[in-house]
């Protein structure tokens, strides 16, 4: 986290990865996790989740926004609510991966997205 937002470096990497290699992400579950001293977790959580939704990735949720607070190494482990949220997202991710695998074993394939017109509101 940098000034209540993901760093420009990580956003640049994500922009390039999702633009150039976006097909590799489609239909794979994703989960954003943010760690901060104090503020900015929800803004970071929001911007990271947008990468998932633009590539049809199921977003794995938890029991609160996926963030932990801590300033120095090891301090985040003292955030009991944050750590509970992390454990819950881990359990939810494992469950979703098992569901996806079971679906594939039973012939359930991901939907194919419609393509075509791109609307431009500049007239």
Helix and strand composition category: mainly alpha
Radius of gyration from CA coordinates? 17 Å
Q: How many individual β-strands? A: 2
The helix count comes to 3
The 3D shape can be described as: flat
The low-confidence parts are: none
Largest sheet: 2 strands, parallel
- Main sheet: strand order: 1-2
Helix content: 40-55%
* N→C terminal distance: 39 Å
How large is the share of residues in beta strands?
A: under 5%
In words, what does this structure look like?
With 123 residues, the protein is mainly alpha-helical. The protein is 43% helix and 5% strand. The protein contains three helices and two strands, in the order H-E-H-E-H. The chain has helices spanning 8-20, 41-54, 80-105; strands at 34-36, 67-69. A two-stranded parallel ribbon has the order 1-2. It is flat, with a radius of gyration of 17 Å. The termini are far apart. The model has no long low-confidence stretch (mean pLDDT 92).
Topology, pairings included?
Elements: H1 8-20, E1 34-36, H2 41-54, E2 67-69, H3 80-105
Parallel strand pairs: 1-2
Summarize, please:
This protein has helices spanning 8-20, 41-54, 80-105, and strands spanning 34-36, 67-69.
């Amino acid at each position: 986290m940098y000034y209540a937002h993901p760093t420009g470096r990580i956003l640049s990497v994500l922009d390039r990865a999702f633009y150039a290699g976006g097909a590799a992400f489609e239909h794979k579950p994703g989960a954003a996790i943010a760690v901060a001293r104090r503020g900015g977790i929800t803004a970071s959580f929001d911007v990271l989740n947008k990468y998932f939704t633009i590539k049809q990735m199921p977003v794995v949720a938890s029991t609160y926004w996926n963030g932990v607070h801590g300033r120095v190494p090891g301090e985040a482990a003292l955030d009991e609510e944050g750590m509970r949220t992390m454990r819950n997202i881990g359990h939810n991710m494992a469950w979703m991966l098992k569901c996806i695998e079971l679906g594939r074993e039973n012939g359930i394939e991901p939907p194919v997205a419609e393509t075509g017109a791109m609307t431009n509101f500049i007239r």
